[in-house]
Amino acid sequence: MKTLIAARMERCIGCQSCSLACARLVHKRLSWHTAGIRINSSGGISTGFEARVCLACDPPPCAAACPTGSLSPRKEDGGVKQDRSLCIRCGKCVAACPIGAIAQDELDNPYVCIHCGRCVPYCPHDCLELAEKGQANVIQEVAE
Amino acid sequence: MIRPHFRVLMVDLTSRKTHVVNVPGRETWLGGSGLGALLFEKYGDPGLPWSDPAQPLIFAIGPLTGYFPLMSKTICSFLSPYHGQYTESHAGGRSALALRFADMDALVIVGKAARPCVLSVGSKHMDIKDAPFLWGKDVFTTGKMVRNMFPGTGTRSILRIGPAGETGCAYACINVDTYRHFGRMGSGAVMGAKNLKAIAIQGDASFPLPEGKEYAKVFKEIYEQLTETTMMSKYHDLGTAGNVAALNELKSLPWRNLQATTDPGIDGISGERFAKDMLLRNTACAGCPVGCIHIGYLREKFMADNRYLYRQVAYDYEPIFSLGSMLGMTDGFGVLGLMDAVEREGLDCMSGGVALAWATEALEKGHITEAETLTPLKFGEAEGYKKAIHHLGVGTNDFYKRLAQGTMKAATHYNGQDYACVLGQEMAGYATGESFFVSESLSFRHSHLDSSAYSADQKPQDLDAPKIVAGFVKDEASRIVLTSMVGCLFARGVYTTERLQQALTSLGYAEVAANLDTAGQDIQRLRWRLRMRSGYAPMQATIPKRYSEVVTWKGPINTEFMETLRQTYAAKLMELGREVHGAEGKEG
Ligand code: SF4
Ligand code: SF4
């Protein structure tokens, strides 16, 4: 299955268009935080940027930790599906994610990337790619 | 929309208390420039000095902030230490989105802390931490320390001052997120006078979007126009630095304290040269896919045996002019070194560079000596300038203290007024001709961005003073609309009135959209009234002799026409700033 890969973050300019797009299009929020992808400056702005985004673990520890089935593994290639109606906002998924890719809003709702790719066209520097898993490095090398 | 009125967070540094004020008036005052003026009228006192603890320091955003691309700027409104009058300065970085997500339309800071402190605000907190250990620290060190004092990477903005703000330099800037600035007119000194070393704004709230398809549609159209057309390519490509060679070619680039307007040494400092040899990467204000911020790479040998360190320095047209051509520098790496020094001290790069250009000529002419400058200053020699920049930041002696109050103040003391390149404040880098010289001398912010005078000068124009002045006034009003939204002025080609109206309507601000042009004019008048109340006398604003000696592509300056234009514009400003009797509380 296709997976979002932040493949070329060395090109990132920190505009946060991706986070704003995910919040706007997937979660219907005006936010730079309640989004599947979030951009941090790595050690202060002067050293560039990094993306906090789901790496599509297979099997996903967040889904294993979820007591309600709100998060469940996608059928292949890792990552999760989310059914918000089942979520009790316990935050177990947030604690289970080893890389801190799941954000919580002020009401404790969790936000995780569902690998839909809607942020990709909003990145002006082509940092992001929706691709088959395992293609990330190949993509990085062939990028113009 | 989040709410129809303005939600303003007031912070009093004296009492260390905060409260939220709900202010009506969105249809008339829009946000940004308009909201800043409204709040200054409410909380400021044009009769008291700028440094009075009661004076407010205002940061305002607008109705479109965060909702649309390039709506990424914050307006800072304050009484300027440069001239003691009401002014504005604009900056981006993450400041605008941080304020949006901290759920405030404006942050107003009054009072004075008992000792140096850092303020942290967010949607759920206000915290003032004593920070005497930060006093005296440069801008970069301060930024690093504040990052460690408060959590929240990626979703916060850090505003801070350097030594120049602490010592009351009239052109001290506020640095925003390392690479952006509230650069001009001395807002940094206002923070310093309040004992406020830094502000961390935590953008930790989120909001529902408008129902329906309209918002998504308008967003998409604007985004495509900004990213898929060539409208923004000049900012994306070489950036504003692309103007350096173009203006040199047009005989409009100030060199060596404006003793020349073109020079063959241009190749070393052109935008093309910077891109080829120095450009390391780009970065952007939050919410802007254009990413016009160009960051250069500077490698410095600090020890024998090949020991190096490297620095990353943001460059733009203006600092290349002020710390490059204006100081006779023809080596781009040398210019980057000076930019880095200016950043550290927290000085405005334009004023700092132009002030040192004046000092260099004053030294050549014998109006001052090395007893004053403490270091040799020679056009083209970076080492002396680096030392002088530090002296200017910390105010080492009386000479540097005077110079830090403004080049014309120092020039008056040392008898060098004729060659002080001051147009209201130290000039911006456009020796384009009569229109620009008059516009910058008299206009509201004394900024090259107050009108398009510098581009009008680059084309043949009729010597019709009333027509040109009418253009300045109209241009100002339309720019005010954009800086009330608050959009980046680089996007003014995309954000036409019609576009802004669509955007506002999609968020539920139909009434605001309908009143846009009138609001622009009302805000314009209020800003001028505030400026006049704080002492502005446009008729007395003169243009130094150096500007009548300039030769541009059009030939020598037409001094007679320049004087007519100056008087016409000054008269028009008096009219704009006239009090409306009976209509408002504060008259006369
Ligand atoms: S792929 Fe979809 S869910 Fe993941 S960050 Fe992008 S827009 Fe959000
Ligand atoms: S949209 Fe692209 S350039 Fe902008 S922050 Fe996201 S990854 Fe970086």
Descriptive account of the structure:
The complex is a heterodimer of chains A (144) and B (588). A two-stranded antiparallel ribbon of chain A has the order 1-9. In chain A, strands 3-4 form a two-stranded antiparallel ribbon. In chain A, strands 5-6 form a two-stranded antiparallel sheet. With 144 residues, chain A is of the alpha+beta class. Chain A has a single domain, classed as Alpha-Beta Plaits (2-Layer Sandwich), CATH 3.30.70. Helices cover 19% and strands 19% of the residues of chain A. The two termini of chain A are 25 Å apart. Chain A is built from 4 helices and 9 strands; from the N terminus they run E-H-E-E-E-H-E-E-H-E-E-E-H. Chain B is an alpha+beta fold. Chain B folds into 3 domains: 6-202, Aldehyde Ferredoxin Oxidoreductase,  A, domain 1 (4-Layer Sandwich), CATH 3.60.9.10; 233-403, Aldehyde Ferredoxin Oxidoreductase Protein, subunit A, domain 2; 426-584, Aldehyde Ferredoxin Oxidoreductase Protein, subunit A, domain 3, CATH 1.10.599.10. Chain B contains 24 helices and 20 strands. In chain B, strands 2-1-6-3-4-5 form a 6-stranded mixed beta sheet. In chain B, a hairpin with a 1-residue loop joins strand 17 and strand 18. The longest helix of chain B has 18 residues, at 465-482. The two termini of chain B are 37 Å apart. The interface between A and B is large, with 31 and 41 residues. Strand 2 (29-30) of chain A pairs antiparallel with strand 13 (207-208) of chain B. The complex binds iron/sulfur cluster (SF4) (2 copies). One iron/sulfur cluster is lined by residues 4, 22, 26, 35-37, 53, 113-119 of chain A.
Task: Please write out the topology.
The complex is a heterodimer of chains A (144) and B (588).
Chain A: E1 2-5, H1 17-26, E2 29-30, E3 38-41, E4 49-52, H2 61-65, E5 71-73, E6 80-82, H3 92-96, E7 103-104, E8 110-111, E9 129-132, H4 136-142
Antiparallel strand pairs in A: 1-9, 3-4, 5-6, 7-8
Chain B: E1 6-12, E2 17-23, H1 26-29, H2 32-43, E3 57-60, E4 74-79, E5 86-91, H3 95-101, E6 106-110, E7 117-122, E8 126-130, H4 139-149, E9 156-160, H5 163-166, E10 174-176, E11 180-182, H6 187-193, E12 196-202, E13 207-208, H7 214-228, H8 233-236, H9 243-249, H10 271-278, E14 279-283, E15 293-303, E16 307-315, H11 317-322, H12 332-345, H13 349-365, H14 370-373, H15 382-394, H16 398-403, H17 407-414, E17 422-423, E18 425-426, H18 434-442, H19 453-456, H20 465-482, H21 497-506, H22 510-514, H23 516-533, E19 551-552, E20 555-556, H24 559-576
Parallel strand pairs in B: 1-6, 7-12
Antiparallel strand pairs in B: 1-2, 3-4, 3-6, 4-5, 7-8, 9-10, 9-12, 10-11, 14-15, 15-16, 17-18, 19-20
Helix pairs in contact in B: 2-23, 7-21, 12-15, 18-24, 20-23, 20-24
Bound molecules: iron/sulfur cluster (2 copies).
The site of one iron/sulfur cluster has 14 residues of chain A, from helix 1.
